[in-house]
Prior knowledge:
With 435 residues, this protein is of the alpha/beta class. The protein has helices spanning 24-30, 44-47, 55-72, 85-95, 109-124, 154-164, 213-216, 229-234, 239-246, 251-269, 291-299, 305-317, 322-335, 340-350, 356-367, 382-389, 394-399, 415-434; strands at 8-14, 35-43, 79-83, 97-104, 128-132. It has a five-stranded parallel β-sheet with strand order 3-2-1-4-5, with helices on both faces. α13 packs across α15. The chain is globular. It starts with 7 loop residues before the first strand and ends with a helix. The relative contact order is 0.11. Bound molecules: flavin-adenine dinucleotide (FAD). Flavin-adenine dinucleotide binds at residues 217, 225-229, 232, 256-257, 259-260, 263, 322, 325-326, 329, 347, 351, 353-355, 358-359, 362-363, 366.
Amino acid sequence: MNAEMKSEVKVFxxxxxxxxxxxxxxxxxxxxxxxxxxxxxxxxxxxDELPKDDARITFIYQCLKKLNQSLGxxxxxxxxxxxxxxxxxxxxxxxxxxxxxxxxxxxxPYAVDRDNGIKDFxxxxxxxxxxxxxxxxxxxxxxTKNDGKPYTIYTPFKNKWLAHFKEEMILERTTDQSNxxxxxxxxxxxxxxxxxxxxxxxxxxxxxxxxxxxxxxDIPAKDATSYLGPHLRFGTLxxxxxxxxxxxxxxxxxxxxxxxxxxxxxxxxxxxVVHENFxxxxxxxxxxxxxxxxxxxxxxxxxxxxxxxxMRQLNQTGYMHNRVRMVTASFLCKHLLIDxxxxxxxxAGRLLDYELSSNNGNWQWAAGTGCDxxxxxxxxxxxxxxxxxxxxMEYVKRWVPELLTQNYRxxxxxxxxxxxxxxxxxxxxxxxxxx
Length: 435
Ligand code: FAD
């Protein structure tokens, strides 16, 4: 049967929204007469850069499998492809009579470029590419200063965010229509897709912990955070569903979700941050970038228990507690004077919740180079952080079993020497730029 004789379909392209529930673009696609063809594309340009057993790929694969099962109950199936999105979509357009392609917006620079190319390609064939806001409450230009310029300081951004927020923004988008293209295509195995399973798994999220979130979130041993990171990253739960469940309570937790949107709009308005310091005045810092010291930091072998515990937790589980992320990041940039971009890239390769905007924003915060960063002269003391946030050493002992034995190494740098050195190098770097 040639494309002319077939009935028109709408393609729904899952990306960072791996769920059927409360999915804006999917609910829009399901309205109207054309049946919906659900697809997912493992983007070759992204996955080829990752190890075959990357834990994020395994998680995505498992989510797709679940989606396929749920779609099976609706008489359809998920078509899973691996390739370049433009090439895959052009192939789909040959096989089906495509009316339009629906997707939720992705704001990372690579995704924006990719989507612009796809839009042009589809439009040239008279096919619509309809994208929707789904992964945030407010996108790019929706929370700005009164003069329309972007906020670069978090607190006024948060205040404006809260002032603009209305309950109808979190109404559920129902996707219970069953207007799908009938199909029962076989679901590919990981091997067929060229992947192998990771031993690292994504934990389920826990919104039950929120009652004590504000008191306990800074204590790594209490494990009292939501573990929502990867679920927000891959959209297995919608941001609206999460905020509905807060029921107007838990303002401290909501503030964290607003940090996420703050950094997303920073990346959108200042894409140079991907490679550069937000503030140019730090461009003159002479990073030491000692490779052997970097390797010790990566392995969790610095002789500072909180740093070592955090890095080992990251290496073994793909997760690190936020307080410990701050301590490890500060240690790398200030104590070792290693460029924040090295640490950022290391985290990016391992964090299950890796998000370009949050990772970059928080690394620049720790290095002092960011938009609303910790002042450069604030150098976390990893030992006092331990005394303050893990007094009984429960967290560090969990990850550094040799801690109280002879086998634990001596600190790789003396705190006072490293602090003084960091202040000197930062000061010199700033004066260089002012000269
Ligand atoms: P919770 O405390 O339960 O927070 C809930 C959600 O709020 C998080 O999932 C996240 O979406 C958001 N959130 C919380 N804190 C922040 C924050 N400081 N900035 C932005 N959003 C936040 N977060 C990422 O999502 N991806 C990253 O790649 C990332 N890299 C980081 C790198 C460094 C150096 C630091 C200091 C922090 C980084 N964070 C990152 C922020 C934070 O550490 C994680 O969001 C949090 O630890 C994830 O665990 P959770 O979901 O249990 O957090």
